[in-house]
Design a protein that fits this description.
The chain is mainly α and about 400 residues long. The protein is built from 19 helices and no strands. InterPro entries: MFS, MFS_dom, MFS_Efflux_Transporters, MFS_trans_sf, Tet-R_TetA/multi-R_MdtG-like.
């Protein structure tokens, strides 16, 4: 069946969906203090809202995609967005912290399959020379959510109540659901996905090396990111407006970093990754020291965002290009691995904070982890199969 709506219209709806899913994932970082006050839990405990979400994405996301691998993309996308709407209604009406945690688990289960399907469809409906840009547009919804959605959610929660944030997500989800039902083409693969072949991704050394970088190195980002909001309050002495501005500059950096990395040639991905990880480690090591100078706080949050989301498209692209045997699962696996790293980093940050470490110590630990990720990337540069990325450049 042909595509009724224009490619740009379809990608815009996909981007709206990834914006909503991305905002739901990250908006809690700007609301930790409010959750703690309203639901009578410690700030360190509220960090579990990120950890539980990430664990659910990492575990239940791939399982859900495996179970539904034979289903057509369009009804699956609509069904996943319906789960998103229901989970945010649960969050908005949560009577206690446990129910809020459950809503996060439910919402996270649809995250990786949704992103994976959107990226797959975006590639399939695009000519070869525009496929990288199509993926960047889908991923752009996430970075715009970090730039605009997270600070807006923090402001909305600070001015009114954190529950208003989740009701906003319900409205956004309903609009996206209708859009997906109307514009998504009924595209089906030329041959049915072979689950056994797709699972071969876990034997692909090139993919496994990238996964190692994400889990053992990039996870350090989330060790610090989880407590960005209280850091802005403590070191920069920001109130609601200052925190909102700080979150905005983090998001602005995220958008700039995301689209800048989207222009990197495939055969230069690993080299650029080494550089970006090194710079990000320096930013995190200096973060709380420079944050004390309010005038430079926005610069540091911008650099933090640029480094973080300037890294993710490189790592995502390396996984998708290397996983030739798993066109249906690679996007889901990539999203899941990042959220596993999120869970590891957020859990470590909560553990360190509960153990009495200061935010400065936590950011130094995070910087060390990122530096280790850079070391792993240097090793990867020497042993990976570079023909995978060179071939893609020739085709593109």
């Amino acid at each position: 069946m042909g595509v009724t709506f224009s490619r740009k219209t379809i990608l815009t709806i996909f981007m709206l969906g990834t914006f909503g899913v991305g905002m739901t994932e990250y908006v809690v970082t700007g609301l930790l203090t409010q959750f703690a006050d309203d639901l009578s839990v410690d700030v360190s405990t509220t960090g579990l809202l990120l950890t539980v979400y990430a664990i659910s994405v990492a575990i239940f996301g791939p399982l859900l995609r495996i179970i539904t691998i034979k289903l057509s993309p369009k009804p699956l996308l609509v069904g996943l967005m319906a789960v998103f709407v229901a989970s945010n209604i649960m969050a908005a009406t949560a009577p206690n912290f446990d129910v809020l945690l459950l809503s996060r688990l439910t919402s996270a289960a649809m995250h990786a399959p949704f992103f994976g399907l959107c990226m797959s469809l975006a590639m399939n409906m695009s000519p070869p020379e525009k496929r990288t840009g199509a993926i960047a547009m889908v991923q752009g919804g996430l970075t715009i959510a970090v730039m605009l959605g997270v600070p807006f959610g923090s402001f909305l929660g600070g001015m009114f109540d954190w529950r208003f944030v989740f009701w906003f997500m319900v409205i956004l989800g309903c609009i996206t659901l209708i859009g997906l039902a109307v514009v998504t083409p009924n595209m089906k693969p030329s041959e049915a996905p072979n689950l056994k072949k797709e699972l071969g991704i876990f034997k692909n050394k090139n993919v496994l090396m990238v996964i190692a970088v994400i889990i053992f190195g990039f996870s350090g980002v989330f060790t610090a990111y989880t407590f960005k909001e209280p850091m802005l309050r403590e070191f920069a002495d920001f109130g609601v407006t200052g925190v909102t501005a700080g979150l905005f500059f983090f998001g602005l950096g995220a958008v700039v970093g995301n689209f800048a990395s989207g222009n990197i040639h495939p055969n230069r991905l690993t080299e650029r990754l080494i550089v970006v990880l090194g710079l990000l480690a320096v930013v995190l090591a200096a973060f709380t020291f420079i944050l004390q100078f309010s005038a430079f706080a926005f610069v540091m949050t911008f650099l933090f965002g640029a480094g973080t989301f300037g890294t993710t498209p490189i790592l995502n692209t390396k996984i998708i290009l290397a996983a030739k045997e798993a066109p249906s699962l690679s996007g889901t696996i990539a999203a899941s691995v990042f959220n596993l790293a999120n869970a590891i980093g957020a859990a470590l940050g909560s553990l360190l904070l509960s153990a009495g470490l200061t935010y400065t110590m936590i950011t130094l630990v995070a910087a060390g982890m990122i530096a280790f990720g850079m070391f792993l990337t240097i090793l990867t540069h020497h042993v990976e199969d570079k023909s995978l990325f060179q071939a893609e450049e020739v085709r593109g």
